[in-house]
Amino acid sequence: MGFCKFSNFSFLFLICILFVSTAKENARIGKDIASLLLFMSGIVLDPEHALEDWNVTNVQVCNWTGVGCNHAKDQVVQLDLSGRSLKATVSPAVANLSSLLVLDLSKNFFEGHIPAELGSLIQLKQLSLSWNLLEGSIPSELSFLHQLVYLDLGSNRLVGGIPAPLFCNGSLVGPVPQALSNSSKLQWLDLESNMLSGELPSDIVRKMPQLQFLYLSYNEFVSHDGNTNLEPFFASMLNSSNFQELELARNNFGGEIPPIIGDLSTNLVQIHLDDNLIYGLIPLRISNLVNLTLLNLSGNLLNGSIPPELCRMEKLERVYLSNNSLSGEIPATLGNITHLGLLDLSENKLSGSIPDSFANLSQLRRLLLNGNQFSGTIPPSLGKCVNLEILDLSHNKLLGIIPVEVAGLRSLKLYINLS
Length: 419
Fold this sequence. Notes:
The protein is an alpha/beta fold. The protein is built from 5 helices and 30 strands. β2 and β3 form a beta hairpin. The longest helix is centred in the N-terminal third of the chain and has 40 residues.
C-alpha cells in the first residue's frame, strides 16, 4: 500500500516536472513567436508574399518562411529573409530572439537606423544587413557580438565612425576603430565599397588570427608613415595562417610592396592591389605564394622588370600588371605557368619580342600586350594558344604580317592590331 502511494506520488511528481519543463519550452518558443510577429507588424511592403505563412494557427513557427529552429524546435536560431523585396524598418523586437545564430535581411528595402538592441544577440555568428537603405551611424552595441564570424553591412547609406565589430560594406565613413579587434574569431572581414579613411587597419587585423577573407577595396585608406609604408599592414597578416583572399583595390595608399608579402599564408589564392599609388619593384619573394591563382597589381606606379620568378606560382590563372611603368622584356619563364588563362601587360614600357614560350599556354584566353614598345614580328607560335579569344597587340612597334597560324585561330573573337 505504501509502495503504491509512493509510486503514485512519484508519478504525479514526474508529471509536474514534465509540465513545468513543457511550459518553459512553450514559453521560449512563444516569446520567439511574439517577437517575430512584432517584427512582421513593421513590414509595410511584401510584394512576394514571403510572410503569408507567418500564421500561428495554420503553420508551425519553425516552418515559417525564413525561420529556422533548433533540433528541439523550442527556439528560433535563424531568420533569413534575404532577397524578399521587403520594405520596413528593422524592428528592435528581433533582438528578443535570444538564441539567434543567423540574421540575414540583405537585399531588401529596409530603411531607418540599425537598432542598438541587436547588440544583445550575443550568440549571433552571422549578421547581414547589406544592400538595403539603412542610414545613420552604426551602433556601438554591436561590439558585444563576440561570436561573429561574418558581418556584412554593405551597400547602405551608413555614415559616421565604425564602432567595434563592423566588418562589411555600406556607405561607411571614417576610420576603422580598434574595438573591431574584439572579435578574434572573425574569418570574414568585408568593409568594401565605402568611404572609409585613415591608415590601413594593421592593429585590428593583427588580432584576428583566424581571418581568411579581407575585403577593403574601394575606400580611401592610406598606408603608414605618411602614406609611404605598407610593411606594417602586411606584417599584421603574418599570423593568419589560413588567409585566402586579400582585396585592397582602389584606395589611396602608397609605398612599395614589402618583401614580407612572400611570408603570407601559402593558402592565399587571390591578391588585389590594383588602382593605388604603389611604386617600386615587384618583390621577388611574392613568388613564394605558390597557390595564388589571381594577382592584380594593375593601375599603380610600379617600375622595373617583371620578375622571372613569377613562374614559381604555377597555379596562376589571371595576372594583371597593366597601367604601370614596367620595363624590359617579358620573361620567357611566364610560358611555364600553364594554367594561365589571362595575362594583361598592357600600357607599360615593355620592349623586346613576344616570347615563343607563350606557345605552352594552351589555356590562355586573353592576351593583352597593347600600349607597349614591343618590336619584331608576331610569333607564329601564338597559334598554339588554341583557346585564345582576345589578342590585343595594338600600339606597339611590331612589324610584318599576321601569321596564318594566328589568323587561323578558330577561338579568336576579337583581334586588334593597330601598331
